[in-house]
């Protein structure tokens, strides 16, 4: 991930941090607290472990996500949102609402129903 050294707007920095297919979904999945890598893989349809690890490393390098390691065998690692990550989560939740509204408006509610996402008609 490359964050511009010269930018014309703070939003450019945030865009550089969250750009990519999976980052907002990773942030969303961490909304309820510490989560294992395996659980994130199960919760995010079609993400590969390689891509998940890459995005987690990038989010960690920007102070959005951090991890805790539990001693012992097998090694257990859980990821969580930092304070900055929880601030970004507020924006992601708004983005989720806008996505739901759009899908309802365009009659694309089948996925919402399948995932148990509530919406108003």
From TrEMBL:
<dbReference type="GO" id="GO:0003677">
    <property type="term" value="F:DNA binding"/>
</dbReference>
<protein>
    <submittedName>
        <fullName>Transcriptional regulator</fullName>
    </submittedName>
</protein>
<feature type="domain" description="HTH hxlR-type">
    <location>
        <begin position="9"/>
        <end position="107"/>
    </location>
</feature>
<keyword id="KW-0805">Transcription regulation</keyword>
<dbReference type="InterPro" id="IPR002577">
    <property type="entry name" value="HTH_HxlR"/>
</dbReference>
<keyword id="KW-0804">Transcription</keyword>
<dbReference type="InterPro" id="IPR036390">
    <property type="entry name" value="WH_DNA-bd_sf"/>
</dbReference>
<keyword id="KW-0238">DNA-binding</keyword>
<dbReference type="Pfam" id="PF01638">
    <property type="entry name" value="HxlR"/>
</dbReference>
<dbReference type="InterPro" id="IPR036388">
    <property type="entry name" value="WH-like_DNA-bd_sf"/>
</dbReference>
